[in-house]
Amino acid sequence: MPGERRGDVMAGQTSTLLRRAARVPVTAALVCAGVLAAGPVAAADDDGSDPTAQQLADDAKKELLNADSLHIALANRSDDRDTRTPAAFDLRLDEDGNCAGSLRMGTGGADGGSVELVKRGDEVWMKPDATFWKTQVPGGGGELAAQLFGDRYVHGTTDDPMLDGLAETCDLDAFRGQLEDGSARAAQDRLTKGDTTKVEGTEVVPLTGQDDGNRITLYVTSDEPHQLVRATEKGPDDDLTMTLTDYGKPVPSATPSADESVDISKLHAVDPDPSPPQA
Question: Is residue 122's pLDDT more than 80?
């Protein structure tokens, strides 16, 4: 039916936007982690201290590869005003594909709304706020979706292309796979080991390098196990901060109730054009 086709178009537009929103923060996080993936290319400054910059980087990489769960947060402080670029990302995820967290859209002071995500097994829940629907979905579809779903989750499985796109955000294996790939964006200069400092009360050693003209700093815990707890990337067009915590801590298992949820089929049926179909 014409209304169903229009609803599918709107759902498809939403799917594309959410896939973009889901992937960009993870991609940015992998860029920050790329220095660790460089392996021997990022040679260490050997100032006679122990451990060296390279040893700290190697240990931090191993800890990330061995982690079966992580809490990753990303802040994008770009000056470019854009409602469709993620400004913040906060996600707990594990190697089984479970996750819980949120994504906030809009850089440079723009407000693109936010969306909450929950995934257990092949079931996915997402809850965009009204601003997200209205700014991310063109035409009248966003307004209708905001009215239809209100403060409830859209619920379905990864069999749905829209929710499958969001589920890719929960792929810890993809994060670790990027770290294992020694051909990932390698630092062009050697890692420099800085003086011990603190990140949120934890003693860390900063490791600094250059990547495509950007300055990347990795903050690795000074005590064993040496874990990466923060990474920053700064340059003419970039200002990113990634924070990693809760290594090995289980992802919260709570899921939204049926009363809090609406089936994904309702979104596919949304008709942004209230006019009757032409004969």
Answer: yes
